[in-house]
Sequence to fold (218 residues):
Amino acid sequence: MTVPKGQFFLLLSLTLALSGCASWSMWSSNQHAPAQRVAGLIERGEQQWTMRACGQEQSRLLQPTEELERLFDNIGQSGQQSIFAELEISEKGGRWVVNKTHRLESTDRGCMGAGEAASQWVGFSRAEGWRVDITTQGMLLTTKDGEDGRQVSMISEQMPNGTLGFRGEYDQGLELWLYPTGCIDRSTGDYYHLNAVLMRDGQRFQGCGYQGGQPTQF
Fold:
């Protein structure tokens, strides 16, 4: 007797399930918690690294990347064992595993300046005295020449390589570009995960950038 095609596959699926041959799953039982962004103080000990998130009293074991180890050596002051960092981490085996370093600062305000809640992205140059905050309201430009609070509606775009571009919808003389390459701030030596270029009235200014928003609260 010929079994209709649809019934054949149904019978085959039931047979495999009952025999245990189909005991696979689309979801791995070893999946890790999703990546999250955390800011705080990291400390490099002789045997292990730890991180104390902003606002917390307890430290967590930290598994650094080779990049983070290298940046710590280059940015930290002589003999410095702890430094402020903002990291993308995943949790595995009771410790935080670093996926990416967003910021590493030895000279700034640390946890006091960790929350850029209103800003989705930030581009700046301390040496040249400018800063652009990308918010839901548009682009907010602050400069050392007193042009504070210049906020304009914007058009944004993202390139295939991850580069982000923001330009004034009506003010064509203002653009901010954020490139997914590491940046060392010239005036402080601190590290940020984005290179920034500000185009303003036909002039080009180089700086650094980073992702804003509020890091995960623990």
Remarks:
- The chain has a mean pLDDT of 82.
- The helical segments are 5-19, 66-75.
- Residues 5-19 form the longest helix (15 residues).
